[in-house]
Specification:
Layout lengths: L3 H25 L6 H13 L4 H25 L1 H7 L3 H5 L8 H12 L2 H20 L5 H6 L1 H16 L4 H13 L4 E5 L2 E4 L13 H12 L7 H11 L3 H4 L1 H8 L4
Antiparallel strand pairs: 1-2
Helix pairs in contact: 1-2, 1-3, 4-7, 7-9
């Protein structure tokens, strides 16, 4: 989490402490306060309804900060950008809902495990090197076209395809995962903030059509690699994509957009 979250928590805590001092002053009238009196004041403040609006407002403000920092993290998340790049046209024309992004990242972490952190660091290193070499000429397209970044993407896709050995079951599971509204928002690798759940909230729109759209966007480029990329893929994996993940590609070919 960036500095805004801790600053907001300090601001909230200070407001509560100020309220405590004010309540004590009203009881004490300038005289020393016994511990039992202080305990009574604190107990009253704990259940006081006068704080309800304050807590609701502070919660909303905190969630806005979390969501803002999540968006910023996605913008600076080189590995996330690499995987999401083939899907960009569908987000731009709203064929895919942008609310799917957290679920997609959850899917990547579920499939890749610790490798997700390894790939994230590798992508950051690639971006760092490119920025050193290109300086102001750096673009994200340069990153997407970088041979080392392509290898990271290929490894990610191979991992994903391997997770679909039981294709139909995995497909149903994936669609349900994409339809899910998260009840927690990640603020770091091991910390979460709970978001309000609205029972009337409709599932995110993601069905057969969106599934086909999603996976064709990711995997179709592998079926028609330029000669240079095809040679690099064979060198990295010892086989071409059709021989390495052929069964997944066959299943996907029967999935029409």
């Amino acid at each position: 989490m960036g500095p805004r979250g801790p600053r907001h928590l300090r601001k909230t805590t200070n407001a509560v402490l100020d309220a405590l001092l004010s309540a004590v002053e009203q009881v004490a009238h300038g005289r020393p306060v016994a511990m039992t009196v202080l305990e009574d004041v604190v107990a009253g403040l704990k259940v006081s309804g006068s704080f309800d609006d304050f807590y609701h407002r502070s919660y909303r403000e905190m969630m806005e900060i979390v969501e803002s920092e999540k968006r910023e993290q996605r913008r600076s998340n080189a590995f996330g950008r690499l995987v999401m790049h083939p899907l960009s046209p569908f987000f731009h024309d709203e064929s895919l809902d942008r609310q799917l992004v957290p679920n997609i990242f959850s899917f990547l972490h579920l499939v890749l495990g610790d490798e997700a952190d390894v790939y994230s660091q590798r992508c950051l290193d690639i971006v760092h090197d490119l920025k050193d070499d290109l300086a102001e000429d750096f673009t994200w397209d340069a990153f997407y076209d970088d041979p080392a970044a392509k290898v990271v993407l290929w490894h990610t896709l191979v991992h994903i395809s391997a997770s679909f050995k039981r294709y139909d079951l995995r497909k149903d599971w994936f669609i349900k995962l994409m339809q899910y509204h998260p009840t927690t928002v990640s603020v770091s690798s091991n910390a979460f903030v709970t978001r309000d759940h609205d029972p009337s909230e409709e599932p995110l729109v993601f069905g057969e059509r969106e599934f086909c759209m999603f996976f064709h966007a990711l995997f179709d480029p592998l079926t028609n690699l330029p000669p240079k990329d095809d040679a690099a893929f064979r060198k990295e994996f010892g086989a071409d994509p059709h021989h390495l993940i052929g069964s997944f590609l066959v299943n996907l070919s029967m999935c029409a957009i």
